[in-house]
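It would be a great kindness if you could assist me with a short task in structural biology. The matter concerns a single protein, recorded as an amino acid sequence and a row of backbone structure tokens. The record follows directly beneath this note:
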Amino acid sequence: MQWRNSSARYGVISVILHWLVAVAVFGLFGLGYWMVGLDYYSTWYQTAPDLHKGIGILLFGVMLGRLVWRWFSPPPASLPSHGRLTRLGAKWGHAFLYIGLFVLMLSGYLISTADGRGISVFGLFEVPATITSIADQEDVAGLVHEYLGWALVIFAGIHGLAALKHHFIDRDRTLVRIFGR
């Protein structure tokens, strides 16, 4: 398997980054959904949000790396069998996923730093609170984080279903390319 993307398929770096982000996003969504129901006396009351924030900050770094890699090693071209609407849908869909993830992570940062405290990432380093003066910062960012989180997970599910449609109904190579084949 090649490291960089070619005109026909994704390379190993893109494949790893894609699946790492997918697992992290769905894992963070599940953790976030579970942790909001915890009560003050739960042993996970403090641990779950710290885990969620730490993984979220690391995911931000991975997404920045993914953007740089996408510039350095552009994705393969659409398949010739894809029509204009399919190409446009893929382009706008991927843009929504990228932009949405960055807005989601920014809103998480704004929630976590609204009180002026930085975010500790597993005790390895701390991300400082730089933006703390937005009116109702925690509440507004919380709503954005919640609704955008749902929207992105639903859209990612649709993205996965579209890949399965390409594989089983259209019988093209869309799905196998993201496995590096």
Remarks:
- The first helix runs from residue 12 to 35.
